[in-house]
């Protein structure tokens, strides 16, 4: 007795492109996952066997959430339909025994950070970081979030950043900022976002701006095989650049003995940064007596001639008036020199 049999194989869950000579797609010439395909009908004599190969190519990347390929075949003919059985798996009580093949697929996120590579930035400047990310794996990453921390000495600048950043507890240094990206498809190429901060003005001397960003997904697509490239850091130098100028004038360059003259010392900071710990030294000659000082800021020591000015903001000015009596030995009230010391 012979039997005419038709083979039907169904891919129930897996992701792949079916291809094999002699197989017929029920829905298309290049059937994909979920479609039914079958062989040409043929006669199989009693007591004989035949081996049918069914081959698929797994998508790269695979779909989001796919962790295995499941395939169930069946044999039909002039008899009761029989489901294929996987000898390497425990039979299903219902009689079906799908073959499940685990996928070695997972997202692999990468992140790089670029501050634009300036030689330095000045206090008060806006520093924009470009964060470039990509999924170089073979599985879609879902629920992707980029995380930043506002660096010390800065404040988050929302207007110069990509829309959507959320910072807690606020925009000040130390706050944690997150940007929800959503799904990142494997192999889709790189994308980038901006994260901007304003540098404090004044900025603390001796500091630099250190910043680290990281990227992560919700783990649905599997564990990232190379988590070490999920974050990147950069360091930016801040230059405190003050331009100081000092002048000294006298109200009467040719005084008579016994008269008073007033010297005015003016220190100007042309910026762009504040000048801190400013000290001016002006030692009076012995030809002048009874000095009286009036400072716009700081303190002048008439004994040592040291004027401790302190901080002069950018475009700011500090003045010191010293009034003295002219003694008989004084020949030139401008003979005293002033010099400046900033540290």
Structure commentary:
The protein is mainly beta and 343 residues long. Helix content is 0%, strand content 48%. The chain is built from no helices and 26 strands. The strands form six sheets. Strands 1, 3, 4, 5, 7, 8 and 9 form a seven-stranded antiparallel β-sheet that branches. Strands 14-15-12-17-18 form a five-stranded antiparallel β-sheet, with no helix packed on it. The protein has a four-stranded antiparallel β-sheet with strand order 10-11-16-13, with no helix packed on it. A hairpin with a 7-residue loop joins strand 14 (166-168) and strand 15 (176-184). Mean pLDDT is 81; it is low at 1-21 and 339-343.
Short description:
This protein has no helices and 26 strands. With 343 residues, the chain is mainly beta. It is rod-shaped and about 140 Å long.
